[in-house]
Amino acid sequence: MRTFFDAFARSDVDAMGQCYHPDVSFGDPLFLELEGRERVLGMWRMLLGRDGGLEVSARDIAADNHAGTAHWTARYVFPRSGRQVVNEVDAQFRFEDRLIVRHHDEFDFRQWAKMALGKPTGLMIGWAPVLRRRVREQARGQLEAYLRSDSPISG
User: Fold this and answer.
1) Cα(87)–Cα(75) distance, rounded to whole angstroms?
2) What is the pLDDT confidence band of residue 84, given thresholds at 50, 70 and 90?
3) Among 48, 47, 40, which Cα is nearest to 11's?
4) Nearest residue to 102 (alpha-carbon basis) of 6, 153, 28, 5
5) Which residues 6+ apart lie within 8 Å of 81 measured at CB?
6) Can you tell me the distance from the alpha carbon of 33 to that of 114, in angstroms, rounded to the nearest whole number?
7) Does a cis peptide bond (omega within 30 degrees of 0) precede residue 120?
């Protein structure tokens, strides 16, 4: 897990990919569920490739042979609004064959929306399920377009 977070902090998606099992699944409040290394790494390439100066730091990393947890902080400028975001994330991992087979991140979607989009838009999106669903659909659509593009997606 330290290798994964060190690579994440360097925005080195190829090195992150070496930590993931081919059948990895990823979930968080924005993307919900992504299956397979290609899709998960595609998401990271898309997010880390944006202009926004992403800084990642991790702490409280703990793991055994089967599972692990960590807390990580992402600092960046949200491209659509130009607003500064500091997102606090709790991560859970499961391992198979000494690789991450399940990665789930949890964060406060309402707080994220308020930071990323400001008031009142972020507050409305954070509280209204229909608007939250729209943000998720837009994120998923951006990922699908990215995966169809000529951008490198496998690591």
Assistant:
1) 7
2) very high
3) 48
4) 28
5) 116, 117, 118
6) 23
7) yes
Quick one: DSSP state of residue 79?
T
* Residue position matching structure tokens 């509280």: 127
Per-residue pLDDT averaged across 14-40, rounded?
95
CA distance 56 to 101: 21
Domain boundaries, the chain: 2-107
* CATH no. for 2-107: 3.10.450.50
> Tens digit of pLDDT for each residue in 89-136?
999 999 999 999 999 999 999 899 889 888 887 777 776 777 878 888
Neighbours of 120 (CB within 10 A): 9
DSSP state of 32: -
